[in-house]
Amino acid sequence: MLEKRNFETDAVRTQSERTDFREHSTPLYLTSSFVFDDAEQARALFADEVSGNIYTRFSNPNNTEFIEKLCLLEGTEDGIATASGMAAMYISMASLLKAGDHVLASRSVFGSTHQILNIIFPRFNISHSYADLGDPDSWEKQILPNTKMIFVETPSNPSLDLIDLEWLGKLAAKHKVILNVDNCFATPYLQNPSKWGADLVTHSATKFIDGQGRVIGGAVLGKKALIKEVRFFARHTGPAMSPFNAWLLSKSLETLAVRMEKHCANALDLAQWLENRSEVEYVKYPFLSSHPQYALAKKQMRLGGGVVTFEIKGGIEAGRKFLNSLKMLSLSANLGDTRSIATHPASTTHSKLIDTERLAVGITPGLIRVSVGLENIKDVIADIAQALKF
Ligand SMILES: *Cc1c(COP(=O)(O)O)cnc(C)c1O
Questions:
Q1: Could you read off the pLDDT of 31-70 as tens digits, one per residue?
Q2: Residues enclosing ligand 1, CB less than 6 A?
Q3: CB under 8 Å to 79, separation ≥6 — which residues?
Q4: I want to staple 219 with a disulfide (CB 3.0 to 4.6 A). Which of 11, 203, 338, 383 is the partner?
Q5: Quick one: which atom of ligand 1 is closest to the CA of 86?
Q6: What stretches in the chain show pLDDT beneath 50?
């Protein structure tokens, strides 16, 4: 474990050892394997008696740098980088669950996480149930004798509801179940679930961690004993992150703090502006005082995040017209980019859910999700203003 400094310093100064070329910025290690000094060292490496790189499916200096830095920023003991966020979600569950186990998840998890729980895991006799973020009293009743893991996202996508991580950490500890938090929306800069008792913290690095819409990646972080199991599973099933992506993502982390400050300031400006518009039914943003969980957001998040959602008056048709009238904002399914992006979840990211499931996770027909980028917010607001007048 490296010594903990302040967030920005760890993000900038955590670097793999310099090579003989004395480079200032970490080079890219594009190599599939590494050479052994002699037969004895090869034997010791494979026997786990010494640490070192053998093969890039197991480890690589770029992946190690990325993950050591991310662990410092999240306050976790250990971690592993994966090829995508979904690889991280999948191995964080598949490596620790077995037939007969049960997962309790928040109803509003990411679409593909739903597909793992609903379609893929039942094939292996791993069951699940969903609990509502808005009804914390129902959670304890849903913990069964075979519940092995609680999986949550806070803030949720796209409805931006929260769950009290301190309360949930205690509930998980009381019942001895693994608490797994997908921290993709908040990033380690805004919220550290391990501080409140999360055993695993999972990420899609594709979003704000990259922050520039370039690469796919993910990470599973957490307690040493659990990551040991996750690492075994990953080593032999192969969801490794490419060294190129790890190299890029490690450099992305250097600017995470300044980027998140700006994303959040822009998002708050937009949310406050939207609140005063007659075309808008309601606005949801964790750091708006009108958010039902504003006090909780202030307690467990440093800032409100880079995503704002709002409901346009006029339902699904008004939502479509609004999107088609935008001139600058991108229509894309991604989020956490320098470029502001507008999405209509009911017809895209969450279209696979049935109507009642969508409403249960707060996705109303005219709901628009804006991932607020790093443009000047006046230009983002100007584009949204002209599109609201369709
Ligand atoms: C995007 C996303 C994922 C999946 O990540 P990929 O990198 O696209 O595989 C998982 N969880 C959340 C909350 C996400 O936004």
A1: 999 999 999 999 999 999 999 999 999 999 999 999 999 9
A2: 84-86, 89, 110, 153, 157, 182, 184-185, 204, 206-207, 216, 218
A3: 67, 70, 71, 219, 220, 221, 222, 227
A4: 203
A5: 9
A6: none
In the numeric block, which tokens belong to residue 144?
């069964």
Nearest CA to ligand 1 atom 6: 85
Per-residue pLDDT at 1: 52
pTM of the model: 0.95
User: Given 3.40.50.800, 1.10.3720.10, 3.40.640.10, 2.60.40.2310, which CATH number is that of 7-253?
Assistant: 3.40.640.10
Joined together, the tokens standing for residue 110 give 């990411």
Q: CATH classification of 256-387, choosing from 3.30.200.20, 3.90.1150.10, 3.50.50.60, 3.55.40.20?
A: 3.90.1150.10
Ligand 1 center to residue 51 CA distance, Å?
Answer: 31
Ligand 1 site-directed mutation target among 92, 110, 214, 341, most atoms within 8 Å of CB: 110
What pLDDT shows up at residue 2? Answer: 58
- Quote the ligand 1 centre to 168 CA distance (angstroms): 22
Task: Give the H or E element holding residue 45.
Answer: helix 39-46
Could you give the 3-state DSSP secondary structure of residue 318? Answer: helix
The rounded distance, in Å, linking the Cα atoms of 7 and 291 is: 28
Q: Which atom of ligand 1 is nearest to the CA of 206?
A: 7
Cα(184) to centroid of ligand 1, in Å?
A: 7
- Whether the ω angle into residue 136 lies within 30 degrees of 0, i.e. cis, is no
Residue entry with tokens 């991604």: 334
> CA 389, CA 383: separation in Å to the nearest integer?
10
What is the per-residue pLDDT for 228?
Answer: 98
Task: Tell me how far the alpha carbon of residue 307 lies from the centroid of ligand 1, in angstroms.
Answer: 14
